[in-house]
Amino acid sequence: QLTNASDFKLLDRRVVNEWKQLGERETFFRALSSWLGFKRTTFSFEVAPRISGDSKWSLFQLLKLSVNAITGFSAKPIYGVAILGGILLLIFLVLGIQTLVHYFLGQAIAGFTTVILLQLLIGGCVMSGLGLIGIYVGRIFEEVKARPRYIVAYDSARDESPASAPHA
To answer: Is 2 left (phi over 0), alpha (psi -120 to 50) or beta?
Structure first.
């Protein structure tokens, strides 16, 4: 059991205002508060022990949180499907050559060559196609979030100092 730990943040008003302007409904607080890019300060405090009861987070809620964390800030799982499709096509190429060699040497089992080659070709094409579609969906996903490219912490033209920049 994890002890003396807490998921707690104090946010400057400017950070909260920037957060509210993002307009996302499915947010992962831990990552998005870091993504905003403001300075962070750490301070120690004593975490009071739980007076009674246990955590109300179910296994399903924890799994949902982890999926939200992975998919909310990365399109890499989508690229994984495309890479898997490419790997399957490479396997098709290698095994296809091997299977054809066995076929021409008369060592192939009847019907085996056709079935294996078709399965590998179709599987590789389907996975590559899904990966390609997924990459486009990932780009749409990034655009729909409409996160700003930059968030200005302070303006030197207004004689603001970096020390006055907000903290997340």
So the answer is: beta
